[in-house]
Structures are given as structure tokens and as C-alpha cells.
Queue: 2 jobs
Job 1
Amino acid sequence: MHVLVTGGAGYIGAHTAVELLAAGHQVTIVDNLCNSHAEAIDRIGAISGTTPAFFRMDVRDTPALQAVLQGSGIDAVIHFAGLKAVGESVRLPLAYYDNNVAGSLSLLKAMDAAGVRTFVFSSSATVYGPDAPVPYREDMPLGTASNPYGNSKIMVERMLVDLCRADTRWRAAALRYFNPIGAHPSGLIGEDPQGIPNNLLPFVTQVAIGQREELAIFGGDYETPDGTCIRDYLHVVDLARGHLAALDALTADHDSPAGLRAWNLGTGRGTSVLEIVRTFEAVTGAHVPYRIAPRRDGDLPAFWADPSLAKQELQWRATHTLEDMLRDAWRWQSNNPDGYNSTTHSSH
Ligand code: NAD
Ligand code: WQD
């Protein structure tokens, strides 16, 4: 297949491009580089032996997208492009609805016009809302998120339900990610946050390498075994492979069910923040000083996936261990102390 990957210079998109190329697919990337570097495209090429076609383009530019899609032989689109910082979305809701909702709408319109109607969307566990019981299952209703980022994901899922209902030629999937961490084992691509990281793992690795003094653990008095929050962390390479499995399921046969299909991509296992810190120290030998800080607004105490639907329908399951995830995150950080701005990129 020829797959258009929007946001393919970003963290999950780059790993997915690598897996697509490894499976023999052709890849074209569209990214406006608002949260990534063109260097990531070269690194995808270094790992894969083939550098994907790349267009620096905003997904809100419908005519430009249409020009990429039209007559290109592109069979399917995986849509990663969007903004993802929860706290920022509270301050800048319009930017989030514009990039994530209007951006997705623009892409779907361009696809429809070009006759490309197979679509995989980067959704999130956040769509279940704060009141859902754990583990999260796909047959639970969409909730209302406590922030614009989460609501933008819910809005796009609703848009896809309506689109698939109106036109049965569409084949679409919403992949609800839990907490992706880790990096490609080559150490060549990984998560490269700009400024102070919001997410746990980049913060941990930046503390371990000495770029930050200590980790603030947000809350030590939750009703969890060690008082810190529990999440379902999964290796980004497993997550990337979930996209190939979803594409296979959408395109396997013409009898595949119409309508938006949703799959959780998680391990089904919960890990606390303290367990992350301790396991990271054990597998890397690096030290991570931390202090218990006040709770972060909007954090849920504990959630994880029921991943059984993906196992049953996609024959997908996460195979990497927590140790693999943390070792690979550390390899990426130590080989690229300044992310893609680092000058050396030898692998261990
Ligand atoms: P990322 O920021 O590394 O990648 C997103 C990419 O999209 C970046 O390269 C950015 O430059 C690009 N982009 C953003 N807006 C764009 C636009 N308007 N036009 C073109 N390109 C644009 O983020 P990621 O972690 O790789 O996340 C990818 C997707 O997965 C996002 O939609 C995110 O919301 C979703 N997701 C991520 C997580 C996570 O924990 N990382 C969890 C659940 C869902
Ligand atoms: C994980 C745990 C923090 C940083 C968010 C989005 C979610 C998804 C993934 C996109 C929490 C704790 C963190 C730190 C800490 N993104 N933590 N100190 O909040 O589960 O999910 O990113 O869809 O939608 O909400 O991930 O990595 O921010 O936090 O103690 O400096 O680590 O409190 O318990 P989260 P995270």
C-alpha cells in the first residue's frame, strides 16, 4: 500500500513510518514541523534504507493536501498531525480546535475529493472521560473530557461516526492510545519535546542525563498502592505496529464492517509513577532524584486499557516489556541529548 502519514516527523508518526516501510509499504509524509524537525525524516531513511517523500504542509491547507492526494496512488491515510499538550489546550482552546478538529476536517474533505477513503485516526484514552470505570473498553460511551485537547479527539471521533454512516465507502478507525513511551531500538528516532516536557518519560530522561535537577512527582497521596498515579505505558514501536494491524483490518476484505471502528492500544497493565522511576534506575543504572509535589490539575488517579478487542480483531498485542521501553527511552536520550538538534547520533 501507499500510505500518507500526516504528522510523520513527530514522535509516533516517525515510528509508524519506519514500521510501514519495514513491512514493504510506500510512505509519503505531510508535516508542518510545528513540533518536530526535518531531521526526523532523514533518520527514518537511515533506519529504513528508503527515505519517504516529504511535504512541509499544514493539514488545514485543503487544496495543497488534495494536490498531494490526487492521482498519487495513495491508498490510505494515517492522521497523527495535531497538537497534544493538555495544559496548553486549556489556555489556547481555539488553536487546539483549529489544528485538531478543523485540521482533521480539512484532511477528510481533501481525501473525499481525491477518492481516498481509508483513514486511521490518532485518538486517545482521554475520550472515555474522567468518570469511566477501569479498565476502559471500546463499548463504553464517549465521555466529556476536562480539557479542549480531549474534547478535540471526541469531536473528531463523532465526525468520523457521522461520515462513515453517511457514506459506506469510508473505512475508518479510531485508535485510542494509552501512554506511549520508549523509542526505536536504533536510538535514531524518539520523543523530542520542545521546552519543558509535559509528559513523564521525557522529564525522567532529562533528569537522568542532568539537564534538569529533579523530577516532581505530581501527587503522592492518591488511592493507589504507593500513592502515585497509575497509567498503561506501552512501547511506541508496539503502538506503531498497531497502526499496520488496523490498516490491515480496514482493507482486508470488502466485507469488513462499515462504520467507525475503535480499538484501544495499550498493554492492559498499570504502572505507577514511582514504579517507572525505580525500574528506570534499575535498567539504566542512572539516578533520578525526585520529590513528591502537589497533584496536577486534571490528572486521574489510575486508568489502563482492556486491550482484548485489538487482540481479537487485529491480532495485535503489545510485546515489549516496561524494561524495554525504559532502556530504549534512555538510549534515545543519551545518544541525542538535545533531541534532533544533537550533532552526534551514534547508536550504542
Ligand atoms: P508529535 O507532536 O510528536 O507529532 C505530531 C506531529 O504533527 C508533529 O510533527 C507536528 O509538527 C505535526 N503537526 C501538528 N499540527 C500540524 C498541522 N496543523 N499540520 C501539519 N502537521 C502538524 O505528537 P505525537 O506524540 O507523535 O502524537 C501524534 C498524535 O497522537 C497526535 O494527534 C496526538 O494527539 C495523538 N496522541 C498522542 C499521545 C501521546 O502520548 N504522545 C497519546 C494519545 C494520542
Ligand atoms: C503520566 C503520569 C502524571 C510528568 C497525557 C494526556 C493523554 C495522552 C498522554 C495524548 C501522570 C505523572 C508527569 C511529571 C509526574 N496524550 N507526571 N511528573 O497525563 O497520563 O496523559 O499524555 O493523548 O491524553 O492527558 O501522561 O506523561 O503527562 O503523565 O509525576 O513531570 O506521570 O501526574 O500520573 P498523562 P503524562
Job 2
Amino acid sequence: EAKRSGRGRPVRFHGALAASARRRRLIETDLRGAITRRELGLHYQPIVRAEDGETVGYEALLRWHHPSRGPISPLEFIPVAEETGLIHEIGAFVLREACREASGWTSGRSVAVNLSPVQFRHAGLAAQVASALAASGLPADQLELEITESVLLDASSNNLALLGQIGQLGTRIALDDFGTGYSSLSYLCAFRFDKIKIDRAFVSGVCDSREALAVVRAITGLGRSLGIATTAEGVETPDQAECLRREGCTQLQGYLYGKPMPAGALPEYDTIRKAACSGA
Ligand code: C2E
Ligand code: MG
Ligand code: MG
Ligand code: MG
């Protein structure tokens, strides 16, 4: 206590580190078995056509409801799953579950599933995708897989081959979070993506920041030249939607259209949106 002034900071810093290490260990321990305890489930967020607001598909987003701590964000537990290798089992669950739920949608809308770069270390990934499709009966062209550039960054030749195998199944492949990370344009030449997703970081600034607008314009231009879709992530306001439409962005996704929701809530969401659109 006598040397408090000199030590206060490091002690507090150390305390914070210890607390975060404790939480990390807790997540690791509790994540094992979370699937069998049925604590993991998917929410679905609508993706709409920019032209007319028609829902074209949904992105599956993983949710963990911890029995005592409540909801834990995928931003927190996915990295732990990746470090521990649990992502292979969790990723397989997500694929199975998303295909199973989507196969029951009478609308025939597609489902987008996020794949971690770590899942590409498992040579059986393409077989996992194929078996999720076969078990559910979901047509391959209704499954879209979202990957980030980091998939092409490490061990690229191997991952590229695996990505090719998955594409061969008839699924679509989207490049997620484009504009952040490495954003090397060479990835767009290395693989023929079906879609580029523009990261929320640029979408949120599209109306007020010249720089953000310039990036959005460049990406939508790339999409047009390549003849592929561009989806804006994190659209929250009608102004943003308007700017994005003007730039020729083809699909929009964000809280403005709908938050991620359980599969059971989708029919009601659909009814409400249809009523809102025809009323407007
Ligand atoms: P992502 O794939 O880029 O997903 C978009 C994230 O933005 C989601 O966060 C979504 O809920 C959020 N979002 C959507 N619209 C808006 C909006 O208008 N405003 C704001 N502020 N946020 C919006 P979420 O669900 O927390 O997921 C975060 C990330 O975790 C995902 O980013 C993805 O990288 C990862 N993730 C989620 N589910 C899975 C999964 O099943 N497998 C893997 N490997 N990663 C997943
Ligand atoms: Mg995604
Ligand atoms: Mg994204
Ligand atoms: Mg993102």
C-alpha cells in the first residue's frame, strides 16, 4: 500500500489480463459439449435485393446461449474454437443445421454459412459440405459459403484446391468482409467468387465519408466488371441504402431490414415485411 502510486497501474493491468485469461479458459471449457447440451443454435439474417427489397436469402449466424452467463458473442467464442480445434466440430454442426433448416423453407431462399479459415486445415471439409447437402436434401445452389481473404492467405495452394472442390458441388462462394484485412485484389483473380460482401466499416460511412464512398464505389465497380453480386453488410439507415443503391450495390443486409432471428421467426418476419412494402 505504501508504494501504491508506483504500482497502481501495473497491478490493475495485470488484474485485467488475469480476468481475461480466466474468461478465455472458462469459454474453452464450457464450449466443449455445448453442442450436445444444445446450447448452440443458428439465427438467420435476411439479405435483400437492392432493387426492390425482396428477400433473396439469409445468413446463418451462430449463437451460444450459456446456461449461466447468457448469450456469448461469436466474436468471442469463435476465436477460442479456432485455437482449440473445436471449430471443426462446431463448423460441421453449423453446416448440417443450416442446410436442415433451409431445406424446410418453402420460399426456396438460399442460406449463407460462414467458414473459418481453420476449417480448411481439415481435408474432409468438402465431404462435410456434401454430406450436409445430402442429409438435408437442400439443392447445392441454395447454399452459399462465406469465406474471408485469410483462407487464401495461408497455405494458399491447398486451400484454393479445397475451395475449388466445394465450388464444384454447385454451392456459391462469397468473399466476406471485403475491404478489411489484406484486401489484395489478386484473390479476385485466384478464385472465381460469386459474390463480394462489402464490410460494414465502409457501409456505415458511405453517406458521410468521401473515403468510405470511394471504397464502396470501387468494390461495386469491381463486382459489375466481374459480373458478380455485391452485398453491403450492416445497412442501418434508409440513407445508407439509398447511397448503396445509387452505387449499384446489388444486395443489402443489415438491421434496417432485419436482425438475425431464429428460424421459427422467419415466416412472421416475412408477413410483416410484405405488408410494410405493399403499404409503402
Ligand atoms: P460476419 O460474417 O461478417 O457477420 C456479420 C455480423 O454483423 C454479424 O455479427 C451480424 O449480426 C452483424 N450485423 C448485421 N447487420 C448489422 C447492422 O446493421 N449493424 C451492426 N452493428 N451489426 C450488424 P455476429 O452475429 O455477432 O457475428 C460476428 C462474426 O462472427 C461474423 O461476422 C462471423 O465472422 C463470425 N461468425 C458468426 N457465426 C459464425 C459461424 O457459424 N461460423 C464461423 N466460422 N464464424 C461465424
Ligand atoms: Mg459473414
Ligand atoms: Mg461479414
Ligand atoms: Mg463483417
